[in-house]
Amino acid sequence: MSLPTKSTQVVFEHNPNGDIVPDTGKPDSTFAVKEAKLDTDLKKGDLLLKTLYLSNDPTQRNWLRKKGDDGRNYSKSIYEGEVMEAYGLAKVIKSNAEGYKEGDIISSRIQWADYSVLPANEVFNKVDTSANLPLSYFLSVLGMTSLTAFLGLTEAGQLRKYLSDKSGKGPVVCVSAASGAVGSTVVQISKHVLGASKVIGLSGSDEKAKWVEKLGADLCVNYKNSNYQDQILKFLDGDYIDVYFDNVGGEILSFVLAHMANFGRIVACGAISGYNDPKAARVDNWFHIIAQCLTVEGFLVGQYKEKFPEAIDILTKAIKEKKVDVDDSIHVETLSGDSEKQKFAKVPQIWNQLFTGEKPKGKLLIKVADA
Ligand code: NAP
Q1: What is the distance in A from the centroid of ligand 1 to the CA of 104?
Q2: What CATH number did the domain enclosing 265 receive?
Q3: Residue nearest to atom 48 of ligand 1 (CA)
Q4: Residues 154, 296: one domain?
Q5: What is the pLDDT of residue 72?
Q6: CB of 179 closer than 6 A to ligand 1?
Q7: What share of the chain is helix, strand, coil (3-state, %, to 5)?
Q8: Which UniProt keywords apply (predicted)?
Q9: Mean per-residue pLDDT, 164-185
Q10: Per the structure, how many domains does the chain have?
């Protein structure tokens, strides 16, 4: 194969003051699609990549920074003028790095671009294609999404003992963004792997809520309905929540804090309600943390790398036993258009669905090219 000479890239142009402006070509567009010359004369340690899949993650919003804003971030920031990035899968089309060869498929943080150059030391891992599993699994049910759900519950939520001990009453678990990638997996692991006695989900539409109940939640409410809190209280019927897996912060977290069991645990996994508008993630009911002796644990999946292999084994078994759905939980959008520029203009639009309620259920992936 002859090597590409240029790359089509989505560049971060204007830091949004609030909501992202996902359409390109407007004066205040958050992103612009550009072409850049690709230097295929690789430095030692570099890989030339062809992008295959891009993951859509809420946390990418937290990477976007104005030039000069060096505020604390747990992940590398992207500044205006730089190419936007995502977690993704790519194929090595040329290697000048030890341990990598043409044809390898890697998982890493990669560019919103068709082709790019990456130092091999930034690769997360090589994808094991020997089992012939669909590549999309490695960004969803066997990737960071499921690891976040599993390790959030078992480590930060301290529910590990329920993996083997099913003798007593299982925990009461509540999860927000329950129809999302992480949330829908939290529901299934809680119910079908850890034996939760009650699983309560919150989601943004009646249709998504029904799907979450189909996956195993005993109740999923639409948090856009004014009576969602009454629905949860009626269902709890005097019971309290042992573990709240918080993906959104704000009003929902404030409500749940007041209904936690003594010594309950909050897995502080995400605060998407505030990613575009930090004020929306503010929390009331702090006193319940004291009065109920709650533990609120900030959770980052990357802190648990040494536990990934064991978690993947348990998740693979759960998938084989049909305790975790793979068919209906992955939504892949294939990029189409007359030109690479047209195709890549769709990437910010697809990603923005995460913040608007338009996102389909489960994990939303973008397929850029066939392997
Ligand atoms: P996702 O759930 O697939 O997509 C985001 C979902 O959030 C949307 O589908 C939407 O669902 C919901 N949402 C958006 N705005 C909301 C709002 N204002 N209030 C309530 N819900 C809202 O994304 P994901 O990848 O699974 O991520 C879920 C959360 O986990 C995010 O907060 C993310 O940052 C976090 N996360 C953390 C880690 C970690 O290591 N700590 C790792 C991965 C993800 P509805 O349509 O139902 O509203």
Answers
A1: 31
A2: 3.40.50.720
A3: 204
A4: yes
A5: 83
A6: yes
A7: 30, 25, 40
A8: Oxidoreductase
A9: 95
A10: 2
Using the mean position of ligand 1's atoms as its centre, give its distance from the Cα of residue 156 in Å. Answer: 18
Mean pLDDT, rounded, for 31-43: 97
Residues 131 and 276 grouped into a single domain: no
pLDDT at residue 179 is higher than 80: yes
Choose the residue to mutate in 182, 252, 254 for probing ligand 1, maximizing ligand atoms within 8 Å of C-beta: 182
325 within some domain: no
Together in a domain, 205 and 277:
yes
Ligand 1 centroid, distance to 178 Cα (angstroms): 8
Instruction: Tell me what the mean pLDDT of segment 325-353 comes to.
Output: 95
- Kindly state if the Cβ of 201 falls inside 6 Å of ligand 1: no
- Ligand 1 centroid to Cα of residue 176, in Å, is 8
> In which domain, by residue range, is 111 found?
6-139+330-367
Over its C-alpha atoms, the chain yields an Rg (Å, rounded) of 21
Residue 157 included in any domain: yes
Question: Do both 110 and 34 map to the same domain?
Answer: yes
218 shares a domain with 194: yes
- Give the β-pairing of 330-334 and 363-367: parallel
